[in-house]
Amino acid sequence: MRFTIIGIGLIFVGLIILGGFGPNYQAATLESNEFETCYEYSKDLPPVEINCSFKIVDQMLFFGLVVGFIGGGITALIKGVRGDWDNKVNPKDMVGPSRNQDDDSDKD
């Protein structure tokens, strides 16, 4: 159960990061393919020409991070669905209403 929750959380975080910051990183490919020059944009200064390879490396690192989150989430989901180690408890370790571990606190 916990791997399923972790998997859903990781996939959700990956998609939120991709949706929130993804458009900032997709411009590098378009600029390098169409114009062969890349620019760094800021709100206060005019655009500054930069090397396209640095911008593409930043883009690849960003998408690698997102793929890592989503891939880790998928792995955790698969592990959670296929795993039954949460249910594999030794009979001597089981406790509950019908199985007490020689606990004399209930006896009067």
Plain-language structure description:
By secondary structure, the chain is mainly α. Helix content is 58%, strand content 6%. The protein has helices at 2-25, 27-34, 52-82; strands at residues 38-40, 48-50. A two-stranded antiparallel ribbon has the order 1-2. A hairpin with a 7-residue loop joins strand 1 (38-40) and strand 2 (48-50). Helix 1 packs antiparallel against helix 3 (52-82) and helix 2 packs across helix 3 (52-82). The longest helix is centred in the middle third of the chain and has 31 residues, at 52-82. The two termini are 38 Å apart. The model has no long low-confidence stretch (mean pLDDT 80).
* Biggest β-sheet strands, sense, barrel: 2 strands, antiparallel
Mean pLDDT equals 80
SS-derived structural category: mainly alpha
Count of helix runs: 3
**First-last Cα distance:** 38 Å
- Tally of strands: 2
Rg of Cα set: 26 Å
Q: What's the quaternary structure here?
A: single chain
The ordered string of helix (H) and strand (E) elements is HHEEH
Fraction in helix: 55-70%
Uncertain runs are none
Give the overall shape, derived from the CA principal axes: rod-shaped
In the sheet with the most strands, the strands line up as: 1-2
How much of the sequence is in beta strands?
Answer: 5-15%
Which tags fit this structure?
108 residues, mainly alpha, two-stranded antiparallel ribbon, 3 helices
What's the layout of helices and strands?
Blueprint: H1 2-25, H2 27-34, E1 38-40, E2 48-50, H3 52-82
Structure summarized in a few sentences:
The chain has 108 residues and is mainly α. It is 58% helix and 6% strand.
